[in-house]
Design brief:
Number of helices: 7
Length: 136
C-alpha cells in the first residue's frame, strides 16, 4: 500500500510541475504547447531522481483527464481551471505556512520556472502565479 501511495505522490508532483511549466510558458493561454522540450527540462530539474516511467504516466494522466489538449501538451480550458483553482488554494495560507514557503529556492528550480528575475522563494513563485492568474 505504501508503494502505491508513493507512486501517486510522485505522479502528482510531476503533474503539477508540468502544469506549472505549461501555464507559465504562455501566461495561462490555452491550446498552446509549452515552449522548449518539456521532458528534458523536467529531467534536468529532477536530475538523477528523474523517472521516465512516472513522467510518461503523468503525461498520460494529463491527457486522459482532459487537462491538456493532446500529446503536444497544450493546456485545455479544464486544465487551466484546475491549475488556477489549485493555485488559489495558496491564498488562504496561514502566516506559519507562509513562513515555511519563504525559503530560498535552488538555482535549478528558479531556472526551471523561468521566474529568476521575479522569484527567489517558493512564496515568491506562488505570489507571482496568483498575480498572473488575476491577469488571465
Amino acid at each position: 500500500m505504501n508503494s502505491i501511495l508513493k507512486l501517486l505522490e510522485e505522479r502528482s508532483l510531476y503533474v503539477h510541475i508540468i502544469l506549472f511549466k505549461i501555464y507559465i510558458s504562455h501566461n495561462g493561454k490555452i491550446k498552446m504547447p509549452p515552449i522548449g522540450n518539456l521532458r528534458q527540462e523536467v529531467k534536468a530539474l529532477f536530475g538523477t531522481s528523474f523517472s521516465k516511467d512516472i513522467y510518461s504516466a503523468s503525461e498520460e494522466y494529463l491527457i486522459t483527464s482532459g487537462y491538456v489538449e493532446d500529446m503536444f501538451m497544450g493546456l485545455s480550458l479544464m486544465g487551466r481551471n484546475y491549475f488556477e483553482n489549485w493555485i488559489r488554494n495558496f491564498e488562504s495560507l496561514s502566516e506559519e505556512e507562509r513562513e515555511k514557503l519563504n525559503t530560498k529556492l535552488a538555482p535549478k528550480m528558479v531556472d526551471f520556472f523561468g521566474l529568476a528575475e521575479k522569484a527567489n522563494t517558493v512564496l515568491d513563485i506562488v505570489s507571482n502565479l496568483l498575480a498572473l492568474n488575476d491577469k488571465v
